[in-house]
């Protein structure tokens, strides 16, 4: 996979997962920007002049647990059951063996679970995907005294990183996200063309980010990249408030569909999304394989 594949990979992802949001520009960024320690490998499958599948893998460098890795394989619906996924899976897993991975994680829609199990994966968790029309929201929740809402383009990178790194610690996962390098985060997240800082919202307590909701966009669709609260400010409805305001700004910007994902164990965020009107569109199974 090379940067010039970005437009075709983005189109393939949309055809495979209609609820996923990844523009050609953000896909190019995904292909190009990686920490060397990740040992990233991306592969594509070509039929004639068409890109019909892609696969990617690399080490998880944002956890203190060594040897953790992720694997993704997408095949266009019109080209499935031709052995393409098998052809991608073998070199991806061979690569992980070469770079010292000890455990790999993947996510699969219901139709892909049995395929993953054939490669030694086993289910561990559920990831729910849901969407909402941001033009139709419940009434705005009240803002607690002393809290100011600002757009994320008014923050500096260090403020946003600190809030993201702290909030992410409590995200349900098979490996803790407890080793996020600042410089890598800036390159991969803050400087990503997917991140629309004019739509993302932070709830500020003085100079500190108390809660935030980050937004990625692709045309008239948006993705909630991350919504979280700092532990000291939880229980005050700030994540709900920040996400409501971010969705309102999305609607004003012409967004007609906003999507997100939540681990089944993340009850507080699922409750916020249910209140906002999100409706489930798909559930994927998270699976692990010991290498």
Globally, the shape reads globular
Low-confidence stretches at least 5 residues in length (pLDDT < 50)? none
The number of distinct β-strands equals 11
CATH homologous superfamily grouping of the largest domain = Gcn5-related N-acetyltransferase (GNAT)
Describe this structure in words.
The chain has two domains: 3-125, 3-Layer(aba) Sandwich (Aminopeptidase), CATH 3.40.630.30; 131-284, Aminopeptidase (3-Layer(aba) Sandwich). The chain has 291 residues and is an alpha+beta fold. It has eight helices and eleven strands. The relative contact order is 0.18. It has an eleven-stranded mixed sheet with strand order 1-2-3-4-11-5-10-9-8-7-6, sandwiched between helices. It is globular, with a radius of gyration of 19 Å. Keywords: Acyltransferase, Transferase.
Q: Which structural traits does this protein have?
A:
single chain, 291 residues, alpha+beta, Aminopeptidase, 2 domains, eleven-stranded mixed sheet, 11 strands, globular
Topology of this protein?
Blueprint (H helix, E strand, L loop, with lengths): L5 H11 L7 H9 L8 E7 L2 E10 L8 E8 L8 H15 L4 E6 L4 H6 L3 E11 L15 E4 L5 H12 L13 H9 L10 E5 L2 E11 L2 E9 L8 H15 L4 E7 L3 H10 L2 E12 L1
Parallel strand pairs: 3-4, 9-10
Antiparallel strand pairs: 1-2, 2-3, 4-11, 5-10, 5-11, 6-7, 7-8, 8-9
Protein name: Acetyltransferase (GNAT) family protein
Pfam families: Acetyltransf_1 (PF00583), Acetyltransf_6 (PF13480)
Keywords: Acyltransferase, Transferase
């Amino acid at each position: 996979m090379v940067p010039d594949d970005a437009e075709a990979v983005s189109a393939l992802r949309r055809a495979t997962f209609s609820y996923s949001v990844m523009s050609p520009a953000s896909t190019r960024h995904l292909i190009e920007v990686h920490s060397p320690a990740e040992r990233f490998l991306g592969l594509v499958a070509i039929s004639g002049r068409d890109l019909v599948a892609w696969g990617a893998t690399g080490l998880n460098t944002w956890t203190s647990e060594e040897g953790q890795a992720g694997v993704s394989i997408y095949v266009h619906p019109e080209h499935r059951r031709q052995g393409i996924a098998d052809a991608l899976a073998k070199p991806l897993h061979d690569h992980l063996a070469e770079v010292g991975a000890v455990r790999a994680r993947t996510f699969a829609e219901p139709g892909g679970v049995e395929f993953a199990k054939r490669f030694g994966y086993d289910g561990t968790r559920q990831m729910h995907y849901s969407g909402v029309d941001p033009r139709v929201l419940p009434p705005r929740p009240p803002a607690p005294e002393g809290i100011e809402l600002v757009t994320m383009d008014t923050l500096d990178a260090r403020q946003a990183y600190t809030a993201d790194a702290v909030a992410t610690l409590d995200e349900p996962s098979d490996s803790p996200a407890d080793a996020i390098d600042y410089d890598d985060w800036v390159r991969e997240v803050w400087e990503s063309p997917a991140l629309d800082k004019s739509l993302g919202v932070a709830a500020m307590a003085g100079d500190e980010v108390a809660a935030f909701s980050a937004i990625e966009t692709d045309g008239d669709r948006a993705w909630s990249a991350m919504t979280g609260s700092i532990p000291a400010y939880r229980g005050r409805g700030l994540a709900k408030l920040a996400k409501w305001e971010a969705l309102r700004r999305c609607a004003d910007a012409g967004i007609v569909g906003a999507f997100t994902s939540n681990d089944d164990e993340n009850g507080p965020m699922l409750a916020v999304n249910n209140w906002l009107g999100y409706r489930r569109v798909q559930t994927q199974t998270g699976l692990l394989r010991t290498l």
